[in-house]
Amino acid sequence: MLAAARYNDATVSYLLEAGAQLDSTKLESTTELLYACDEKPYHVNRAAQEKSVQLLCKHGADVNVTTWDGKTPFLLAAANLNLGLMRLLVAHGTAMTAQDMEGTNALTLAGRKVGYNGESRKDVIKFFGQTEY
After folding, report:
1. How far is CA 85 from CA 19, 21, 27, in A?
2. Please, where are the H alpha helices in 24-95?
3. Which superkingdom, per the lineage (predicted)?
4. Range with the lowest mean pLDDT among 18-22, 24-28, 106-110, 121-125?
5. Structural domain boundaries of the chain?
6. Cα(123)–Cα(118) distance, rounded to whole angstroms?
7. HSE-up of 116 (CA within 13 Å, CB side)?
8. How far is Cα 93 from Cα 110, in angstroms, rounded to an integer?
9. Which CATH number fits domain 2-130: 1.25.40.20, 3.40.30.10, 3.30.300.130, 3.40.50.300?
10. Residue 53 in contact with residue 89, Cβ under 8 Å?
11. Which residues are within 8 A (CB) of 28 and not within 5 positions of it... i.e. 6 or more apart?
12. Which 3-state string (H, E, C) describes 3-43?
């Protein structure tokens, strides 16, 4: 469901209501939720992105699914300093302690990124200090 990668929540909602299958890995060995949590191309509309992710989670998307290199939706959100998405995924039961195939966790990924969209590494690091994981 490529609509998830484009953050088109109206189309995502329509397809989910029509019975579209979630967690399918037919396109490039990734799922709709992984597409929606990735920020390529950059400069995404984060409000639209969060709506799409919320819809996918609400319909049972696996929040702990991984990419070929072990990145979960939470790791992708942390790597992009997307605090809103991180909070949303935590609310849906994501594993905050997940690590990719190289053993890198969300806090380390966040520490490597320079902030944009008003969020900084400090905000994400502070989030980890306020959340049990």
Report:
1. 25, 22, 23
2. 32-37, 46-58, 73-79, 83-91
3. Eukaryota
4. 24-28
5. 2-130
6. 9
7. 12
8. 20
9. 1.25.40.20
10. yes
11. none
12. HHCCCCHHHHHHHHHCCCCCCCCCCCCCCHHHHHHCCCCCC
Whether residue 73 has a cis bond before it, omega within 30° of 0: no
> Token pair of 126, please?
């502070």
Residues in CB range of 91: below 8 A, 6 or more apart: none
Predicted pLDDT at 98: 94
Is residue 25 over pLDDT 60?
no
The angle that helices 83-91 and 121-130 make with each other, rounded to 10 degrees, is 20
Both structure tokens of 132: 């049990």
Q: For the chain, what's the residue count? A: 133
pLDDT digits (tens, 9 = 90+) for 55-95: 889 989 999 999 989 999 999 999 888 899 999 999 999 99
